[in-house]
Write a structure and sequence with these properties.
The relative contact order is 0.11. The chain is α+β, with helices and mostly antiparallel strands. The longest helix has 36 residues, at 226-261. The strands form four sheets. The chain has a four-stranded mixed β-sheet, with helices on one face. A four-stranded antiparallel β-sheet has the order 2-3-9-6, with no helix packed on it. It is 50% helix and 14% strand. The protein has three domains: 5-118, Butyryl-Coa Dehydrogenase, subunit A, domain 1 (Orthogonal Bundle); 121-223, Butyryl-CoA Dehydrogenase, subunit A, domain 2 (Beta Barrel), CATH 2.40.110.10; 227-372, Up-down Bundle (Butyryl-CoA Dehydrogenase, subunit A, domain 3). The protein has helices spanning 5-22, 27-31, 38-46, 65-76, 80-90, 92-100, 103-114, 226-261, 273-298, 307-332, 334-337, 343-352, 360-372, and strands at residues 120-123, 139-143, 146-153, 164-170, 178-184, 190-192, 196-197, 203-204, 207-215, 219-221, 263-264, 267-268. Its cofactor is FAD. Residues 122-211 form the Acyl-CoA oxidase/dehydrogenase middle domain. It comes from Amycolatopsis vastitatis. It holds the Pfam family Acyl-CoA_dh_M.
């Protein structure tokens, strides 16, 4: 889509103008509404902002990851809840699906995803397999021309609303036995449990697979597909990092405008050096993390970023975004803490992204392995 700095600037400006015109109104209300904003999804699809990195021959825009990062950030600076839709339509499970799905799977599912009428959820974590994802126990066993899925998934993305789930499963023992399947909502043997709520207000529901039979055509990646899945998951981490930075910058901007106008002790808050230094620190952290995020997106080979650059970018962006939201809330006092502005929402969301998609501790482990040139097993010795 874009090949030069001028093209990217024009693209960013067009997305910004669209967001201000169509998404600014109702942004605060959307942030506090728990459900998936389907009307926003269809609106973004009409604007060509879903499937940005999906090849044109598959119905997408054939753009780069850097374009998708620009889109999620420009949308998020106006309506942070709508940035979640850009994430779902460009990063996360959709990017893994677009990279590895068969032609038949693309024909059946992609049109709905790219039109904003259908949603793909990611079911990875289990009660005993969170960060240690290779410990997953959900199985998929061949039975004629079908597979039977059994197990439980928790913390699954879009589990309350998704029409289709990309489910990490075990076809056999060891890491080499891990792959993934596609399970449609309503398939017999799939039970969606009672929704629970995160601190952010988002909802999730446990997924129970009990003799859930799916056609063999719904296998996305068979045995040995784990490394490919994690490569695709690195894209999700970039979407996570982009939203962290964007909401941090949104909180920063709201707080900056506040301190320039709010007066205490006969002077604006901006006149106090303690406040000035907070904004200086926020600006340095946000700008530094932005450069790391842009590097990871720009250097993505064949659409998939490197694990090291992704880990560095997510770690920096998660910390910078939360720091900015936290300090913005502090300088705004009660107004920042209230639901009258988006700052407290930004605080809650950025806190969650320090856990989701790879905790800060897991990212540090991954970065250290690359820096020191060796792998450090976290498993207890047998």
């Amino acid at each position: 889509m874009t090949t030069s700095t001028e093209d990217r600037t024009a693209f960013a400006e067009s997305v910004r103008a669209f967001a201000r015109d169509r998404l600014a109104d109702g942004a605060l209300e959307r942030a506090h509404a728990p459900g998936y904003p389907w009307e926003v999804a269809e609106l973004l699809a009409q604007q060509g902002l879903l499937g940005l990195t999906v090849p044109e021959e598959d119905g997408g825009q054939g753009a780069t990851l850097l374009d998708a990062v620009l889109a999620i950030q420009e949308i998020g600076l106006v309506c942070p809840k709508s940035a979640d839709v850009v994430q779902a339509g460009n990063f996360g499970a959709l990017r893994t699906f677009a990279e590895y799905a068969t032609d038949d799977q693309k024909t059946r599912f992609l049109p709905g995803f790219l039109a904003g009428k259908s949603l793909l959820g990611l079911a990875m974590s289990e009660p005993e397999a969170g960060s240690a994802v290779t410990d997953l126990a959900t199985t998929a066993e061949r039975d004629g021309d079908s597979y039977v899925v059994d197990g439980t998934k928790i913390w699954s993305t879009h589990s309350v609303e998704a029409n289709v789930f990309l489910v990490y499963v075990r076809f056999g023992p060891g890491v080499g036995g891990i792959g993934s399947v596609l399970v449609e909502r309503g398939t017999p043997g799939l039970e969606i449990g009672k929704p629970s709520e995160y601190m952010s207000g988002e909802q999730w529901a446990p997924l129970y697979f009990d003799g859930c039979r799916i056609p063999a055509e719904n296998v996305l990646l068979g045995p040995g597909g784990f490394k490919k899945q994690i490569s695709g998951f690195n894209v999700e981490r970039l979407g996570n990092a982009a939203r962290s930075l964007t909401l941090g910058r949104l909180a920063f901007t709201i707080a900056r405008d506040h301190v320039l106008q709010r007066e205490q002790f006969g002077r604006t808050l901006a006149d106090f050096q303690g406040i000035q230094w907070k904004f200086a620190d926020m600006a340095v952290a946000l700008d530094g993390a932005q450069l790391l995020l842009d590097r990871a997106a720009a250097n993505a080979a064949q659409g998939l970023p490197s694990a090291y650059e992704t880990s560095v970018a997510k770690l920096a962006a998660n910390q910078a975004g939360f720091q900015a939201a936290d300090q913005a809330l502090q300088v705004m006092g009660a107004m920042g803490y209230s639901t009258e502005t988006l700052v407290e929402y930004c605080f809650r969301r950025t806190r969650g992204w320090m856990i989701a998609g790879g905790s800060l501790e897991v990212l540090r482990n991954r970065i250290a392995e690359d820096v020191l040139g060796r792998r450090f097993s976290q498993r207890a010795p047998k």
